[in-house]
Design goal:
The complex is a heterodimer of chains A (about 400) and B (about 170). Chain A is of the alpha+beta class. Chain A has helices spanning about 15-40, 50-85, 85-120, 280-285, 285-290, 300-315, 320-335, 340-360, 375, and strands at about 130-140, 145-150, 165, 170-180, 185, 195-200, 205-210, 215-220, 230-235, 245-255, 260-265, 270-275. In chain A, the strands form 2 sheets. A 6-stranded antiparallel β-barrel of chain A has the order 1-2-5-4-3-12. The radius of gyration of chain A is 34 Å and the shape is extended. In chain A, about 30% of the residues are buried. Chain B is mainly α and about 170 residues long. Chain B has one domain (about 10-170). Helices cover about 70% and strands about 0% of the residues of chain B. Chain B contains 8 helices and 2 strands. Chain B has a two-stranded antiparallel sheet with strand order 1-2. In chain B, strand 1 (about 30-35) and strand 2 form a beta hairpin. Chain B is globular and about 45 Å long. The chains are: A alpha+beta (about 400), B mainly alpha (about 170). At the A-B interface, helix 1, helix 2 and strand 1 of A face helix 1, strand 1, helix 3, helix 4 and helix 6 of B.
């Protein structure tokens, strides 16, 4: 039934105008959603969990898997035919590769043995081996503005946001969204992806920045020739996002002279991935515990001391206040020949209060002059909730 | 030439939308043929262009909004990015509709290419402003080119419904 055949058939509105208004309304809604998404930064792994995206992924995952299966079978069939015709060449190449790798195998065994001895001698605390979960990729976004994949394993398998994702060749990306049965993986090539890496030969650090292309950029490289063409790039482990030493790719230069990385994970289709159940630093840290501003309870003796200090501070008139002025006038009238003590003590009081203000703003207190010895021991530190209004407040940095 | 059909919302709005979503899901399959990944065109660009040429609609922009949001969620892009670009194309195409109606297929294809390019430029600039980095231009041009190649689908939709509402012929 058409809209105009219904109960609103007598409603006459100019369609062109109504369509224009509808277009504007839809455009404003889209713009609002985009701004809201930008502020909440829902694409990042560091953002709080987004139920809308997770629910959508949970719903669309099985559908994508169903539609992707025939195409995957067709792709596998094509690969099978190609492998059949290339079998002889492949066999020759692999034999040569096995012969080359035998030398590396012996060297690796020798180095592994020496490494284990060094670790035992130095009592190094090495990272425990992380568990892996294998998942099948069911959807793949590879446009210029987003590179992400949907894998068919979720929180039921122990996967958490931030877990590194690998293929059989190297690092693929990182989990940025998890529902019960699916996970959203942000690839290294996504425009939002930033990964701390190192150059294996020089140990130089860099940030691998995705740009929506196949080969992400190496940014923030420092030093004289820190990288050469063909250098192996590994995860550096800086920031705790990834474990150190995961293979990423090989360094290469593009036609504009920009260093890029040809990813190992790009060697074949990503139909299966391994998700490393690696607990990074940000997952270990309890934000609420870190941001808890409640101070430990104080003893009765401390409380009495604080009350005494507050009472003394209240009883002492402030320089410049009417009470201090009246006291100064009284003192001047009683002893006209002697100089007024407030003139000398006021700068000292100001100097004594200055480190307290600096401590509030996180600055290191300046060295106090000799005429204010009480300031050299630091200001009297009081929590805002334990001071009376009007008193200078300083907070112990270590207690925040 | 295709037979003209009456302008029922499900036939010129709902069904083409579902076909575009289906195409998007199919092309997102993680398969490679002879070592090459499948292209990833923006199928709903066909709708944004064809709907504006056929006739103005109240439901059209809201369906484009929903379709764009589906793309953003499905591709894990910025929420609202493709919704905004599709509505922008629809709105501008509606404004210059009188210049396009009745033109030859080649001229319409050029118009479609211009609108698609405009949508990608806007999307590119939005992403640049958001991440403070430039996305890969070659990949953007590739995706825009593949989307422009979808014009025959838009032409088919226009041929089916352009004469269904004689007020906007």
């Amino acid at each position: 039934m058409s809209f105009r055949d219904g109960p609103l058939q007598d409603l006459r509105i100019p369609l062109a105008w109504a369509a224009t208004v509808a277009t504007l309304a839809a455009g404003v809604a889209a713009l609002f959603l985009m701004i809201e998404d930008h502020h909440s930064n829902t694409r990042s792994a560091d953002a709080p969990p987004t139920p809308v995206r997770n629910q959508f992924d949970e719903s669309v995952g099985p559908v994508s898997a169903m539609f992707a299966a025939p195409l995957r079978w067709a792709g596998d069939a094509g690969d099978y035919v190609r492998d059949y015709f290339n079998a002889v060449d492949e066999n020759r190449r692999l034999k040569k590769q096995v012969a080359d790798l035998m030398a590396y195998k012996e060297a690796a065994q020798r180095l592994q043995n020496i490494n284990a001895r060094y670790e035992a001698l130095l009592q190094l605390r090495t990272e425990p081996a992380a568990k892996m979960v294998t998942a099948r990729v069911v959807a793949d976004a590879r446009g210029p503005f987003s590179h992400a994949r949907l894998a068919d394993a979720g929180s039921d398998s122990g996967i958490r946001i931030g877990n590194p994702v690998l293929s059989e060749h190297g690092v693929v990306g990182r989990v940025v969204g998890v529902s019960k049965t699916v996970s959203r993986v942000l690839l290294l090539t996504d425009v939002d992806s930033r990964t701390p890496v190192l150059v294996n030969s020089t140990n130089a650090r860099a940030i691998l920045a995705g740009d929506g292309g196949d080969a992400p950029k190496l940014s923030y490289l420092r030093g004289h020739e820190p990288v050469k063409r063909g250098d192996v790039i590994l995860t550096s482990g800086d920031g705790g996002l990834y474990p150190r030493g995961l293979p990423v790719g090989v360094a290469d230069k593009d036609i504009f002279g920009q260093w890029r990385v040809r990813l190992y994970s790009d060697r074949s289709a990503l139909d299966y991935v391994r998700i490393m159940l690696f607990t990074d630093f940000s997952q270990l840290v309890d934000d609420q515990a870190l941001n808890n501003r409640a101070l430990p309870p104080i003893s009765a003796a401390e409380k009495a001391q604080i009350d005494q200090a507050v009472a003394a501070r209240i009883a002492t008139p402030r320089p410049g206040s009417p009470e201090a002025q009246a006291a100064a006038d009284k003192s001047a009238a009683a002893k006209p020949a002697t100089p007024a003590p407030t003139a000398a003590t006021a700068p000292a009081a100001k100097t004594a209060l200055k480190p307290a203000a600096n401590a509030v703003h996180g600055k290191s207190p300046a060295p106090a002059p000799a005429q204010a010895p009480q300031a050299t021991h630091g200001p009297r530190v009081l929590h805002p909730s334990r001071t009376s209004p009007g008193n200078p407040v300083a907070v112990v940095p270590g207690r925040r | 030439m295709a037979a003209y059909q009456p302008l029922q919302p499900w036939s010129w709005l709902i069904v083409p939308t579902l076909v575009c979503l289906f195409g998007t899901v199919i092309m997102a399959a993680p398969a490679r043929f002879l070592g090459l990944a499948l292209p990833e065109p923006v199928f709903p660009m066909v709708l944004a262009f064809a709907w504006a040429v056929i006739r103005p609609s109240i439901l059209g922009p809201f369906l484009l909004l929903l379709t764009g949001l589906f793309l953003d969620l499905f591709w894990h892009g910025t929420l609202g990015l493709w919704a905004l670009c599709l509505i922008l194309v629809y709105g501008i195409a509606l404004l210059v509709r009188n210049l396009m109606v009745g033109q030859s297929v080649r001229v319409l294809w050029v118009w479609y290419g211009v609108f698609t390019t405009l949508a990608f430029i806007v999307a590119y600039l939005v992403v640049v402003a958001r991440v403070h980095a430039t996305p890969n231009l070659i990949n953007a041009v590739w995706q825009a080119g593949v989307t422009i190649l979808l014009f025959p689908f838009a032409r088919r939709l226009i041929e089916q419904f352009e004469d269904a509402d004689i007020r906007f012929r």
